[in-house]
Amino acid sequence: MRDGLPANDAEYFRAKKIVGTIGRGTRIRLITSPKGVDREFATQYWAEVEALL
To answer: Could you tell me which residues are beta bridge partners of residue 51?
Structure first.
């Protein structure tokens, strides 16, 4: 998980801090609608989520 949507520039992977991970199979709830960010190699989708315990 990151602390927000990164900018769509060459430094995007350094723009936001990693704040944790969500394990495989963890149920999540979308807080915001996914936003597509077009990278050279693929479209990445970002959304604010909440892990359900």
So the answer is: 28
Q: Is-contact 29 4, C-beta < 8 A?
A: no
Q: Which amino acid is residue 42, in one-letter code?
A: A
Whether the CA torsion 14, 20, 25, 31 is positive or negative: it is: negative
Q: Give residue-wise pLDDT tens across range 11-24.
A: 777 778 889 999 99
- Secondary structure (3-state) at 20: coil
C-alpha distances (whole Å) from 13 to each of 9, 27, 31, 35 are 9, 25, 22, 16
pTM of the model: 0.66
DSSP letters along 26-51, please?
--EEESS--EEEE-SS-EEEE--EEE
